[in-house]
Design brief:
This protein has helices at 2-5, 10-21, 25-43, 48-54, 60-71. It is mostly helical.
Length: 72
């Protein structure tokens, strides 16, 4: 959908984004979601499942896998 906003083909958008930011659009969005999840973990008493859904993951297990991949 980001490619559509800037009226570029998905492949072209992804290539230009990566050239500009040294990271893929997918990785950038994932890191933003993880950053928001970290904020929620620190500042709320929500469950992991609630946080996972709030930041756009389909399940707690998907969130945990992504969090581990980004944070180590």
């Amino acid at each position: 959908s980001l490619a559509a906003v800037v009226k570029k083909a998905e492949r072209t958008f992804s290539r230009l984004f990566k050239l500009s930011f040294k990271i893929s659009p997918q990785r950038y969005i994932s890191e933003l979601r993880i950053a928001e999840a970290k904020r929620l973990l620190r500042n709320t008493e929500w469950t992991l499942a609630d946080i996972a859904l709030a930041v756009g993951f389909s399940s707690q297990s998907n969130f945990t896998a992504a969090f581990t991949k980004v944070q180590g």
